[in-house]
Write a structure and sequence with these properties.
Elements: E1 11-13, E2 25-29, E3 38-43, E4 46-54, H1 55-66, H2 77-83
Antiparallel strand pairs: 1-2, 2-3, 3-4
Length: about 80
């Protein structure tokens, strides 16, 4: 397992009005600004279990989410979209 820097600034991916402990996903960006700079991902209920990727892969994932490429993984999303006015 890669060494996780102790001074990371974890950002919680939760709605602003979210209450309670989650679990939520947290993201932290490591040093560097190129495509190989590390990105760390963890759940709030298991903060010692950290997944590491790089900025290039993270950016591709975010673009895919924004484009709806993963919508088929969300149960009930299609029904909600079909019932929208």
């Amino acid at each position: 397992m890669a060494d996780i820097p102790p001074n990371l600034d974890w950002v919680r991916a939760a709605p602003e009005d979210a209450e309670g402990p989650g679990p939520w996903i947290e993201i932290a960006f490591g040093e560097g600004d190129d495509g190989e700079a590390p990105v760390y991902i963890r759940e709030t209920n298991d903060p010692d279990n950290v997944v590491t990727t790089n900025r290039r892969k993270w950016d591709a994932f975010v673009l895919g989410v924004q484009a709806g490429e993963f919508d088929h993984f969300v149960e009930g999303l299609e029904d909600a979209e079909n019932s929208a006015p």
